[in-house]
Amino acid sequence: MGLLDILLGRTKPVAPDLDQLFGLPSAAVTLEAAAGFRPTGSGAVCFATVEGGAFEQTHREVQALLDADAEREGPPVRLSRDGYGYSWLVSERTPDQLPELVNDLHAVNSAMEVNGFGPQLLCSLAGFENLEGRRLALVYLYKRGTFYPFAPLPGAQQRRDNPLELRVKAALGDDLRIEQDLNRWFPLWGAPGL
């Protein structure tokens, strides 16, 4: 970054660091101890919708890679579209298979990145739930290399539990690289895997 960039307030974008995803299993232990949330086994990768043969080939490659996992039951990754026009590759595991789910999310992100779809990647999430059935997602922002919690309020139309999100932020500060700019804690209404 040059002097002119500093004077004009331009910054270099943070390079994605997919290895940050591997911090989720240890963060899950902290999250359960601090707030009572356990993994659901659901996770997803969100990206700007991509059409065409190159994406279909990438999807088949990811499917074949994850099908090779003998412990998986059912389809490893399903493609879903939300009401906002974004696409999601959703992976389902059992709740005790968070490390395997993280491997799935990493593999999907890596395959898309290697095949030229990195600019379309937006985020990945892993779902959590407490004993009362409250849902929470730990969201990884691909372009920022950071995480944030997203906790929709049950039964409320597009409202979130900000105090819970801030408690989770404080609890996981030593486990994950948390996004400090709260304006980047985007709501993921109706996200698959949550």
UniProtKB/TrEMBL annotation:
<dbReference type="Pfam" id="PF22742">
    <property type="entry name" value="PspAB"/>
</dbReference>
<protein>
    <submittedName>
        <fullName>Uncharacterized protein</fullName>
    </submittedName>
</protein>
<dbReference type="InterPro" id="IPR054383">
    <property type="entry name" value="PspAB-like"/>
</dbReference>
